[in-house]
Amino acid sequence: MRVSRIQAEQNRQTVIDVASRLFREHGFDGIGLKDLMKGAGLTQGAFYKQFASKEDLAAQASKRAMESAAHRWAAATTANPGDPLGAVAAFYLSMDHREERMDGCPVAALGSDAARQGTDVKASFEAGIREHLEIIGRMIAAADGEPNSKAMAVLSTMVGALMISRVVNDPHLAQAFLDSATEQVRDAVTA
Predict the structure, then answer these.
(1) Which of 35, 133, 154, 155 registers the highest number of CB atoms within 10 A of its CB?
(2) How far apart (Å, rounded) are the C-alpha atoms in residues 89 and 182?
(3) What's the pLDDT score for residue 143?
(4) Predicted confidence (pLDDT) per residue in 101-149, tens digit
(5) CATH fold for domain 55-190
(6) pLDDT value at position 144?
(7) 51: left (phi over 0), alpha (psi -120 to 50) or beta
(8) Can you give the residue ranges of every domain in the chain?
């Protein structure tokens, strides 16, 4: 059965959305095309009509995941415009976010996997990371146009703490990493 161009594009977007979530949960190599397509409600045969390769999908899914993260940051800052970085840190460095493997931060979920991928996947992450640095830079009044060291330190601290909190079993230790990072982010802004 042939599908319309509109339906084909909707199917493509669904696959990108589903892959964005499933890659964050399982890693790029932790889930096969069959299961990705099943998650999107489509057959594996439809994949190659939509994407050149799994890496092509990984790059597009990574871009979508980074866009989703930026939207979450924007929502947090809108909810607390008086302390935008505090608002981002509060949601990002929380136990709830720690548990959001499918919808949480793609850098924390896939950073080490992305480092082993091709240039297109890395480019998707790099663009998203640059956007995060720009947002943090604006929050801490860095207007020189280049990612400054303070914004880089804040982002590194947040991502590292979230990643480590996901690695440990002890919820008290996980919370301690998140709390320590929250303090460091606060201190970095006031320093």
Answers:
(1) 154
(2) 6
(3) 38
(4) 899 999 999 999 999 999 999 999 999 999 999 999 988 874 344 558 8
(5) Tetracycline Repressor; domain 2 (1.10.357)
(6) 43
(7) beta
(8) 55-190
User: Is the distance from CB of 186 to CB of 180 less than 8 angstroms?
Assistant: no
Query: Residue type for 52, please?
Result: A
What does the alpha-carbon distance between residue 45 and residue 10 come to, in Å, rounded to a whole number?
Answer: 16
Q: How far apart are CA 130 and CA 36, in angstroms?
A: 28
Tokens 């909190």 correspond to what residue? 165
Nearest alpha carbon to residue 71 among 17, 35, 8, 144: 17
* Interatomic CA distance for residues 107 and 46, integer angstroms: 29
| pLDDT for the residue 45 | 83
Radius of gyration (C-alpha) of the chain in whole angstroms:
18
